[in-house]
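Researcher: Here's a chain I'd like modeled. Treat it as a single chain, no partners, no ligands.
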Amino acid sequence: MIKKRQSKKRGLRPVRKVRNVRRGSTKSRSGKPVKKQHRKLGRAPRTARQYFAKSRAFQETWEQVVQVPGLMRSRKLSLSRASQELGLSPSVVLRLARPAFRKRTNGTYVARKVDRLLRVLAVPSKKGLREVIVRDSRDASLIGSYWSSVQAYLSTGDATELARFSKKQSRDAKRKRIRLITNVEELSLLANAGVLSFESIYARLG
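Model: Modeled as a single isolated chain. Structure tokens:
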């Protein structure tokens, strides 16, 4: 019997069979398909009940998402840049907060002057911090400016900026007035109790 000679070429490796990966997913280092993040996010919450029914992971993502339009407005940033600064992808932001943006003819997005995204914010009260639900970006902006004035007072003792909020009104999602404490004695008591020490006005309480 004549054996056929098998030629071996050095440097060549057998080609591995590539498995089909679903569209819209990427591969991790282990080779397993990983779905894009926004496919697991679900719908944006429109009520407080819907928001608190979400997982903690979703709530943390949402707290970042709702900051993107305001960041774009205040610092004139692009959607991608504002999203990047908050550790998000623009696709996730648009997936959850599309009504807050307007698409230009050139394909880029700009934040609308006012948006109605649901926001859960912390404000001081006599008994400590409490959560309020707002649906108007102007109310959220006012509360954010108020907190900046509170922190300025606690750092410098100058209550000049804080005093102007005594005549300002902010309202929650049900249009009820949100009381903003401007009495320096009340704020000092809360600060001494450690109530006003936190990183973000979007932080969940408890």
